[in-house]
Amino acid sequence: MTTITLPKTLTFAVALALTGCAKSYLVLLEDHDGSTGKVIFSGAGSETVVEQAGYGAALDNSKTVFKVEQEKINKDFGRALASEPVLPEIFLLYFETGGTKLTAESAALIPKIIETAGKHPAADISVIGHTDTVGDAGKNEKLANERAVQVSKLFDASKMDVKEVAVTSHGEKNLLIKTGDETSEPRNRRVEVTIR
What we know:
Strand content: 25-35%
Order of helices and strands: EEEEEEEHEHHEHEE
Number of domains: 2
């Protein structure tokens, strides 16, 4: 029996029962964030380690690690890779103090956010408003909601394939940067946009 150990979350592909005399093998692929883990599999007194993207090993205990050309990866695993869901993407938009005006840097992200939402079929979007701890907690709850509602208007369902836009306010709860009360912290004045 062959044991496969995966020490890190990673993407790998295993081809089983290929045509004719072709052998079953696995190939390590680069993860979505560009990292590569490693695969260790052992059996019959041997151990094989694959730790470089684009390299594979036969599942016959041969201990041989070999380069797998992208064309072969596409041929053998293309359909499986194409069926992977689009990963969620998270954006943080920051605001000027006390209001709903985006910082210049955050305003510049709007086209990228719209483009990303367009790439997700039937996008499910979460928009969560936050504030820092300056001022009354009740007013901050309301301000965070106003910020989230303002950002949610970017996702006009008539212009893109949006399944749902959920808007919530966390006010001064769930601080990105933990602070005491009455502390002005620009990174806490934000809206989190998650596109799935």
